[in-house]
Amino acid sequence: MKKLIIFLFSCVLFWAVFLPATAQVTSAKPFLGATIGILDSLPQPLRKQYKLKNKNGIMVQKVFDNSPAKTGGLAVNDVIQKLNNTTIVSPRQFIETLHTYRVGDEINLTLYRNGKKLIKPIKLLAKADTELK
């Protein structure tokens, strides 16, 4: 009986200490560190300057310091049109697609900046891994 009590206590202690840590790691959503908006919010002069061939995409409105977006080279007014091979049509779809990836994954964002097409590789982090400013 004493061995059974010790065994049960050990199991409870194990779950109390190790299970929350593993659950936290696996449930963390990937974080980009940029505020995005609909492409309609892009000012008309920039639309002409970017020479966009279609209306797909989202606009980067803010890039936070110490974020994957900043490290990956994103800038305000970039127009993101693809996340890996997925064409982006709205902010919601972008976020849903982003959340299909895991913390630590590297994604490629196809974007337009000043009329030039760029591909930016970005390593996704968890929000807790960054200090935003």
Q: Can you offer a commentary on this structure?
A:
This protein is of the alpha+beta class. It has two domains: 1-29; 34-129, PDZ domain (Pdz3 Domain, Roll). 34% of the residues lie in helices and 26% in strands. The protein contains four helices and six strands. It has helices at 2-27, 44-50, 68-71, 91-98, and strands spanning 34-38, 58-63, 79-83, 86-87, 106-113, 116-123. Strands 1, 2, 3, 4, 5 and 6 form a six-stranded antiparallel sheet that branches. A hairpin with a 2-residue loop joins strand 3 (79-83) and strand 4. It is globular, with a radius of gyration of 21 Å. The model is unreliable at 7-25 (pLDDT under 50).
How is the biggest beta sheet arranged?
6 strands, antiparallel
CATH topology grouping of the largest domain: Pdz3 Domain
CATH class of the largest domain, please? Mainly Beta
CATH superfamily of the largest domain: PDZ domain
The mean pLDDT is: 80
The secondary structure category is alpha+beta
Distance between the termini: 57 Å
Strand residue percentage: 25-35%
Share of helix among residues?
25-40%
**Radius of gyration, rounded?**
21 Å
Number of beta strands: 6
Give helix and strand order, one letter per element, not per position.
Answer: HEHEHEEHEE
Low-confidence stretches: 7-25
How many structurally independent domains?
2
Shape: globular
